[in-house]
Amino acid sequence: MLNAAAKVSLHPAQIGDIDQLLHAQDGEAKVLAYLTERGLRHLWDQFSQLKCGSLVGFEGERISQFQAPGVVYNTYTLSNRKGVDIIHADGSYCGWSFSDWLIFRGVLLGVTYLRYEFDTVGTLSEDYRRGTFNQALCKAEDLYKAKYKHVKPHG
Asked: Which of 26, 67, 114, 128 has the smallest set of CB atoms within 10 Å of its CB?
């Protein structure tokens, strides 16, 4: 479900279990079974939908610069673990694994048709300064504000 934010609060031990399963052989299948048993498969499905151009936000109570709305500019697999790189409206950027996504209660706000080839952090910073992400970041901010009117903006 594209814009549905799952109001799910996982216990830190459960997130630890998921993280350990992801490191195991056939980790993704084990995580899917774990989540399906608990009626939480939608969390994985939403994370799996993330691609370059996806607009994301975070539901956590502690809104910080890394929880500000942003746009996915890169997807990757590292040690059999999927992840995404996100650039935020203030120019900060970070990588998120599925475990991070669960801890900070990530939500998919929408998608754009942004196409971006990640080269180096220097190129990323320069592209940000040139405004490459402006349209997508403005859309992410607008969608986030509409969805979370009650949350005080970061900064």
From this structure: 26
Helix 27-37 / helix 41-48 crossing angle, nearest 10 deg? 130
Alpha-carbon distance of 18 to 83, in angstroms, equals 14
| Count of beta carbons in the 10 Å neighbourhood of residue 151 | 16
The single-letter code of the amino acid at 110 is: G
Residue 140, number of CB atoms within 10 A of its CB: 27
Residue type, 13: A
Which residue reads 């997130």 in tokens? 15
* pLDDT given for residue 152 in this prediction: 54
How many angstroms separate the Cα of 60 from the Cα of each of 20, 101, 107, 145? 23, 10, 10, 14
Burial of residue 55 (number of CB atoms within 10 Å: 0-12, 13-18, 19+): buried
Model confidence pLDDT, tens digit, residues 33-54:
999 998 989 888 889 889 888 8
